[in-house]
User: Fold these one by one.
Assistant:
Number 1:
Amino acid sequence: MLSIMPGGNDYGEPKRRGNESQKILNESWPLSDKAGGHARGIEDQPNPIAVEVLIEWATDGEEWLAGSATRWTASHVFVRISDTRSLTRFVWVRARDVRRTQLPPG
């Protein structure tokens, strides 16, 4: 059963909790400070990119999921995903764990 937790996150989404939730082991934040990993100041791009992201689940192992890249740096990509195992609907990962699924026009 999935329930919404009070609060939310910096991306306007509620925290989610369910029996099926798992930690994403390859999550990697692009910036860090004394408080830990973060992505403050990295803005959404005007045109999201269709991608596949490699997720390493704590229980289920590695899996490629469809997603949408909306923020990135030279080394990291923010991908929106839709999977009930994730406590949020997004993940920051290293760029090597993301591949485009749609070629740019031209």
Number 2:
Amino acid sequence: MQVKRYLRCFGKHTFARAEERCMLADIIRDSWLALRDTGILEGKSAAEKSVLFQATNIDFPLFYQAWDPVLRVDFRTGERMCGGSPCFCGSGLPFVSCCGRTPGEDELSAGFF
């Protein structure tokens, strides 16, 4: 169910590489173990466990890489920065319009960044 959710997000039917499959298996396993360690699964039937795991929202890193190959983090708070987040520098601008802005090709070639 989680693999299906992951693939559906990218409009794919299969993995691009074996490394992608292994990475996803590790993330899903870690999520299942974290859910198990909470104790919420104790005394539940297999069907009830399946429903709980299906409702678990797993944060797949490649969702972010689909739009931006760089995972941007505010290390002071430990939170991921997304496009609409206010910039951590205090400018009041959205992160993608300020410190998270990706310079254009013309800026990079001319050295304006």
Number 3:
Amino acid sequence: MNNDKRNSFAAFHIRQMIGISLFSLANTFIIARYGGLWASGIIGVMIFVFWIIGFIGAIQGEEKKVPLVGDLFQDWFKGIA
């Protein structure tokens, strides 16, 4: 969707959401299995809060990074979007 006309705003939010999605998958398959359901539930709530922060930033037209890991997402996925 972002291939025809490169939009830095869209690329920013794509990278943030790829990171949140990967953390969510890791929480579902790794932490829930080896860390227990309580740990997975707490981390799941934290991931949901991160998603809400990113969603509100996108709606407001801001490049609002996810707390704690937003800079890492931008660095890790800089070649994707």
Number 4:
Amino acid sequence: MTVALYARRKDWPLREVLVRLRHSKIHAQDCESCETKEGMLDRIDSEIELVGNLNDEQRAKLLEIAKKCPVHRTLTSEIEVRTRP
């Protein structure tokens, strides 16, 4: 939604945004960029398809914007889960 709103505001010819996510578990020791080095980690692989007559610069900017959306920021931040009775 963030990407589509940005493209609409810029009047860019974006027709559709398709996002595919794949979830898996990996050994922490196999993740070079992760701070955690023990146990298992969740990995989410994301594929974003931008449909429309966009140039390379527009596509790059929209992918940059995708990393700033609220969902992406939540998934890449530290998360605390609190359960209350």
